[in-house]
Every structure is written in C-alpha cells, then in structure tokens.
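Dear Dr. L.,

I hope this message finds you well. Following up on our conversation about the binding site, I have prepared a predicted three-dimensional model of the protein together with 2P0. For your records, I am including the exact sequence and ligand specification that went into the calculation, followed by the structure tokens. Please feel free to forward this to your student if that is useful.
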Amino acid sequence: MTTYQGMARAHTNIALIKYWGKADSELFIPMNSSLSLTLDALYTDTKVCFSEELKQDSFCLNGEEQAEGAVAKISRFLDFFRNLAQLDLPCRVESVNHVPTGAGLASSASAFAALAAACRQALTLDLTDQELSTYARRGSGSATRSIFPGFVKWEKGDRHENSRAVPLDPADWGVAMVILALNTQHKKIPSRQGMAHTIETSAFYPAWPRLAEKHLKEIEAAIQRRDLKAIGQIAEANAMAMHATMLASNPPFTYFEPASLEAMDQVRSLRDQGYTAYFTMDAGPNIKVLCPASESQEIAQAMEEAFPEAKVITSQVGPGIQTLDHWPY
Ligand code: 2P0
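The resulting structure of the complex is given below.
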C-alpha cells in the first residue's frame, strides 16, 4: 500500500503594508508588494495523507467533515503538489485551527501555508521555503507570507515563480501585537470580492499601488533601524489608505464599524499617554495594535477595560512553518 504522510504548523500573519488587489486573479499575482508580521498566538496544524486506500479527497477542519465546496477548493490546491510529485493519489486533509472561536479571526493565511508545508513533507518535494511560498500563494495571497517568521515581504513579481515571500527580519527585538477581536455579527464582504470590486470601481484605486510601494520602502528602512514608532506610523497610514480605496468604490463599502473607530481613538489616546501603540485593520472590524512587547500587557489591559465585550489577544512574534513529528491531537 502506498501512503505518504506529512504534518506541519503555520502561524498567521498581519499585514503592515496591505495586499489589496490582484493583477492576475488566476495566478494570485498582487498589484503591489506587501509586508507583514508573523504572529505566535494564532496558528494552524495540518496533516495530509496521500493514499491509494482512499477513494477521494476529504477535508476535516476542527473535527468537522467539510462539504463538497470546501473540499473542491482544497483539491485544486493539492493538485499543484500532485503535479510536482507526478502522482495521482487521493488525499485526506485534517486541520486544527488555533484561533479563539468566535473571535472573527479565521485566516486562510496559516491554513494554506500549513497545507503547503505538509504536502512538501509528505511528498518529499525538493522545494525551498521561498519556492513553497509561491505555492502557498495559489491557495490564498496572504498565505505567501506565513511561510517565514517575523517581518516578511511578499514581492509582487510578475509570474508564478517570482511572486514570493522574503524573510526580512526575525523581529526578535521586543515587538508584539495586541489583537482586539470585536466579534460583531455584521456579515463581512469576503476580501477576494472586496478587492475585485475596489479595483473595478474605486476612483482612489489607481493611487493605491504607488502609495503602497512608497510605504514599503519607508517601512523597510524603519525595520532596518528598529524604529518601531516609524514602523507603526507607516502601517497606520497604509491601513487607512487601503480602507479609503473601499470608501471611494461604487457602490461604496467599508469594514469600519463604530467599535473599530472607537478602538482607533483608544489607540490614539494610549499614544497621548506615552505608549508606542499603532493600529492596523484588515477585511473585518477587528483592530490590531503594534507595540513594544514591554508595553503589550498594559495596552491589552487598557483595551479590555475599554471594550469589555471584546476578546483581547496578546501575541509575540511568530516563527515560520514547522514540520511536526507527531500529531498533537
Ligand atoms: C493582507 N488582506 O495583506 C490583506 C489586507 C485583507 C486586508 O490578504 O483572495 O484572504 O485569498 O488572495 O489573502 C486577505 O486576503 O485573499 C488579505 P485571497 P486573502 O493581509
């Protein structure tokens, strides 16, 4: 019986320079390069088993068997690896997402990075981490960056092979992030759909790739000199610029909710009190606060007091993908 098994863990990442818009939606080539911080607190463990004993692909997430649509998406992704290994075996995929339930933080970034790493291990594929990031990208753009630890750049490239992640800095100099999960009931627009609509209709979109590339140069210089204040200022400006492109689309839409705006105010007020705290926000209402690790507990406490309904998660910087030698469940 031929069976190939692999297990891997990948952590999620939060973009400080955002990816918003695809130049090629087939290949997932982005309109601009982006940059993120990998987080320790949120991750996905994934086990794959390619076997001739199986009849078809299947996918179990957090102990729940997934429906046809979700399996089809996974199957298309597995095909990249089956093609590389030149084999045609069905695969069983099991994943456990370590994301607090109901926090509105479910992420495809750690999911596809873990799946790609598990496939590489199972099929003993001769792929570097950088090459692996190009495959992770084909599952979800943000997964490209979850292959590496710390501050990671996703170079946009112009074809499959060169749209890849580059590790910039392990961020092991006291960087942290406090996540304010606002857990609202509002149904969000999937980011894939949101970015396509923004490109098609937003009068502000043409300015976005240029601004993002400028922010990227500035933030890379700030990372190099370990200037967390400058990193935070650039990240905050970049997030707001991305959200502005959506406000200027037609019909307009936004991920801002009243609580998101209140949380931004809270971060500004923490700054007034002397904290080095800067926010960013993605395709949902949650606010993430970049800060020094030494201030993260006090910032988290202030957030908990201001938003008693929310879940507050303090995260250190996360590692890159890891293979697992046993399945911890
Ligand atoms: C980012 N986001 O850079 C940006 C900021 C959301 C806002 O990457 O279509 O789930 O699978 O490539 O990666 C979310 O988009 O989209 C995202 P697809 P993805 O983190």
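In brief: The pocket of 2P0 is lined by residues 15, 18-20, 28, 34, 108, 140-142, 191-192, 282-283 (CB under 6 Å).

With kind regards,
A. P.
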